[in-house]
TrEMBL record:
<dbReference type="GO" id="GO:0005739">
    <property type="term" value="C:mitochondrion"/>
</dbReference>
<dbReference type="InterPro" id="IPR021150">
    <property type="entry name" value="Ubiq_cyt_c_chap"/>
</dbReference>
<protein>
    <submittedName>
        <fullName>Ubiquinol-cytochrome-c reductase complex assembly factor 1 isoform X1</fullName>
    </submittedName>
</protein>
<dbReference type="InterPro" id="IPR007129">
    <property type="entry name" value="Ubiqinol_cyt_c_chaperone_CPB3"/>
</dbReference>
<dbReference type="Pfam" id="PF03981">
    <property type="entry name" value="Ubiq_cyt_C_chap"/>
</dbReference>
<feature type="domain" description="Ubiquinol-cytochrome c chaperone">
    <location>
        <begin position="68"/>
        <end position="211"/>
    </location>
</feature>
<dbReference type="GO" id="GO:0034551">
    <property type="term" value="P:mitochondrial respiratory chain complex III assembly"/>
</dbReference>
<comment type="similarity">
    <text>Belongs to the CBP3 family.</text>
</comment>
Amino acid sequence: MFWSNPCSLALPTDSPQRIEDPKYEGFKRVILKLMLFYSKQSQSIRWANAIYSRVLYQVDRPAIYDVFSLEKTFKTTFSLLVIHMWLCLRRLKEEGKEGVELGQHLYEMYNHDLELRVSKAGVNLLLTKWMKDLEKIFYGNIVAYDASMLPEGKKDQLQSVIWRNVFSDDGSSKPSDAALPLVQAMSRYVRRETICLSLTDKEAIFTGNFMFTRLENTVADSVKR
């Protein structure tokens, strides 16, 4: 799995999955302009929402759990959210200050969604503590993923980070023989997505008009084998 050459993830201009800003004219446009609908901040919030919708599309669908044989729990979903957030933030950072600022709006979208997920999981009394703990885990994971992609990084470092953050339930440092192929596959998937996102143009990234690699076909191919 995930041996194919990386390619741009930008959606075609005629794709029904594209997200376009509504184009209003006349009086309605004037009113929206007065309400700051077209302000830079409002636009950034809409873009961040579009980008985060792509993260959710990949993480909340069954395919990613099927491909990597993961049970859908709060832990695994959180771990996958972090990976895909890291992928997006890493790509946005490539666009300099403008990308970093958009990344901050994206993080706020993620944080709000995570708070709702924690509440849905039944955590209410200690919600603030949970959110602080998850924030520490988020930034710790981001640092680990960044380090694993450095040229001077150790061999299989990304694989080890993915095992620890996503797959391991018992704190073991290395995957079992049974789990190793799945961890290696996710490592290839993550590396491929980083390149695909780098090949995706700025406009598609900023406006959320891209889709992560579809995994449904990967599931079908795996079943055929």
